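Sequence and structure are no longer studied apart. To make this concrete, we show below a single chain and its fold as tokens.
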Amino acid sequence: MDALSRLLSLYPLSTTLDVRCHFGAPWVLEHAAVASGIAPYHLVVSGTAWLDAEGQTGIALAAGDIVVFPKGSAHRLYTGAGGDLMPQRHLPGPQVIANVVNDGSGAPTDILCGQFEFNSDSANPLLLALPDIVLVRSSGRPDFSGLQALSGMLRQETDSQRAGASAVVAQLSSALFALVLRAWLEQAEAVPGLFALLADQRLQAALQGMLAAPEKPWTLQDMASACHMSRATFARVFQRVAGMTPAALLMQTRMAQAAVWLAQGKRTVADIGEAVGYQSEAASNRVFKRCFAVGPGQYRRNARADNA
């Protein structure tokens, strides 16, 4: 399994696609800030729009663009200059997802809207490493054919009333974040922190090793040797690229794996602590509580309640 796939498996999230907007200009879509751990997204199916967010105004959006707000910040999508805004309303009748329309006579825009919800956001390095706005432009990019195909299928299924359409949309949207994240990593000129490790070939062996076997008693020398560096050089390069020490990333990886297993509920707390590299259950529990603000037992009970 590659490093990005392992990271995504350690930090699970749920995806919802719940609204499709069919607007004629002029229109405005105001989105208030949301709770930590919830990342709204908008996929422009057709037409154009402008985006104001995080102090930036007039960001142009076109068909094939998808914008995500990992910090849940307030934002505003709009198009059309001047003119009265027509009231927006939900279309009646059975639909795969809610359809919101207006009676604007200007150029039409079609947008799919939903959200990514991250588990345990307070200790989620994946979420914390993302910028306030993730913008992917897929038009004219043959290397983003997977994202383009998924977007087309979502458009087709949300248009239809065919049997199983809701299940198909749910399954398709669950793959959306991985495709968006991969496209962003390939498109961005520079990426921060944890994601920078994915792009730095010098550190790949250590990153892959920690992700594949977090339970191993890794030493700084082990990681440096895997990357064919001295300990001092490895520590300096890793800190500069990742913005954290190798020990901090190892601890985060161990706790993320422990959280996944606790949520699954198939192993004892003691077994999980040992399986992620701790010889003492008490030591494992202390680190876990420091990361998640609750002990392993309470975390498991919370996960069961959320899934009930």
